[in-house]
Amino acid sequence: MKNFDTEEVVKGYYGSTLSSSDDLKTTACCDLDDIPEYVKDISPLIADEIQMKFYGCGSPIPLHLEGCSVVDLGCGTGRDSYIVSKLAGEHGKVLGIDMTNEQIDVARKHINTQMKAFGYENKNVKFVHDYIENAAKHVSPGSADVVISNCVINLTEDKERVLDDIFRMLKNGGELYFSDIYADRRLPDEIRNNELLYAECLG
């Protein structure tokens, strides 16, 4: 049991404490060099503000997404959502969900710019401000081809609910791709109750 409100700590950390990935105190988040070439090819099209506020720990983005319906759980400023938007093409559909107002505001602010950068006449991406535990409210059962999540599921208190909802959202044969931090042993209380380590996915 934590001795702090985990949701408030995470919202405060990613909403106001951090202004860019340079402010991170640990190495839990990944370097942008450690990503697949097809993601690197799209990255120059993504707005600088989105890139500098990217806090993922991997690249849970499959290559073949043309025409797919994709849900990004804990999308932050939308970096992965926009990469997927480009891979899915104009006839694909991407929904990003995040609980942090400040992050979602950045993601939404760049929609028109990103669609123009991709050469799309119609928007294929939407961002919703909500907890990922409530994702099923925004996604019809059996409607998603792919669900992705980057260094977020470990921050949820009810992981079983999140995974159950992902199963319900996915079509028959749909796929989940996630990158996350996990431990192979019980963590001591001094780590589990450290707000900074918790916020950076290590506690």
Automatic annotation (TrEMBL):
It holds the Pfam family Methyltransf_31. Keywords: Methyltransferase, S-adenosyl-L-methionine, Transferase. The keyword Cell membrane does not apply. GO terms for molecular function: arsenite methyltransferase activity. Its EC number is 2.1.1.137. One of its GO terms (biological process) is methylation. It catalyses: arsenic triglutathione + 2 [thioredoxin]-dithiol + 2 S-adenosyl-L-methionine + H2O = dimethylarsinous acid + 2 [thioredoxin]-disulfide + 3 glutathione + 2 S-adenosyl-L-homocysteine + 2 H(+); arsenic triglutathione + 3 [thioredoxin]-dithiol + 3 S-adenosyl-L-methionine = trimethylarsine + 3 [thioredoxin]-disulfide + 3 glutathione + 3 S-adenosyl-L-homocysteine + 3 H(+); arsenic triglutathione + [thioredoxin]-dithiol + S-adenosyl-L-methionine + 2 H2O = methylarsonous acid + [thioredoxin]-disulfide + 3 glutathione + S-adenosyl-L-homocysteine + H(+). Residues 66-202 form the Methyltransferase domain. InterPro entries: Arsenite_MeTrfase-like (IPR026669), Methyltranfer_dom (IPR025714), SAM-dependent_MTases_sf (IPR029063). Belongs to the methyltransferase superfamily. Arsenite methyltransferase family. This is Arsenite methyltransferase. It comes from Flexistipes sinusarabici.
